[in-house]
Predict the 3D structure of the following.
Amino acid sequence: MARDTHISPVFRAEGVTRVYRTGAVDVWALRGVDLDLAEGEMVVLLGASGSGKSTLVNILGGLDLPSGGRVFFRDQELTQASDRHLTAFRRDHVGFVFQFYNLVPSLTARENVALVTEIARDPMTPEEALDRVGLAHRLDHFPSEMSGGEQQRVAIARAIAKRPDVLLCDEPTGALDSKTGIQVLQALYDVNRELGTATVLITHNAAIQRIAHRVVVLADGRITRNEVNAERALPAQVSW
Ligand code: ADP
Ligand code: MG
């Protein structure tokens, strides 16, 4: 994919630290992270459990604030924003996908996505969002009638229906087997390619890094690797 390096990044993190103070001990979850996310880029974020991946992505998404350093979304400094602005930033610009799908069990796939499209500014229809993740044939199914991978794809449809600028995914395949996990990766891959949604995908499965434009590795709160993939693999080529 051609990417214009003159365009300013979607996200820029500069010297980000995050210290959790619990009782007498300070836990340094992030120890000075510098990271840019370019327009249209898919980054896979790898690292051992406890290395700071979720903390970093929660800060990028405006769910948490760093203890030090600065974070920008385009020209907007999140680390200077009020709570009200952070809420608006999340609502207007960020789609989140977590390991557990958090669908409403009593609503169909279409209705779960409609919860978001009803309050967004320029949403796609629930039908389009579900079609984009390969679920056009599942519109009227309830979560209990779907596999884990299908439920996660409903969650992705819900996240992309408001056309977010960035999609932040924290272990989206963590609870899935290889077959359904690859279908979820395919959905994320297609959304990134077709809509140009900048995507950060946290995983502890190192094989998944092959589908990324760029791979970032965290260890003990620091970035230890930040490299562009010379070649990308398709999700179907990932050996789980
Ligand atoms: P990862 O997602 O890579 O597994 P996390 O970002 O969840 O890592 O955690 C990084 C470090 O911060 C870990 O040592 C973790 O125990 C600690 N941590 C995360 N969240 C909290 C919290 N709410 N309170 C205290 N410590 C936390
Ligand atoms: Mg985590």
About this structure: DSSP finds six helices and ten strands in the chain. The chain has a mean pLDDT of 94.
